[in-house]
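Thought: the user wants the 3D structure for the chain below. I'll pass the sequence to the structure tool as-is, report back what it returns, then summarize two notable features.
Action: structure_tool
Action Input:
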Amino acid sequence: MESISSQDTIELALTAIFVLISAMVLWKLSSFIKKGRKEPKKSSYFRNSMKERQNKL
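Observation:
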């Protein structure tokens, strides 16, 4: 059985770091392309519950 050299370990670690960084960049780009919004979507739960309370009164 062959032993893994330190060069192989370093190459594998650099490849893993490169894959993680590229995945994070693609994730950010997809979020910008998907909606084009820079602010998160606001929930309408509280507005709807307040309207229901006012309608009951």
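Final Answer: Structure generated. Residues 1-36 form one domain. The helical segments are 6-35, 45-56.
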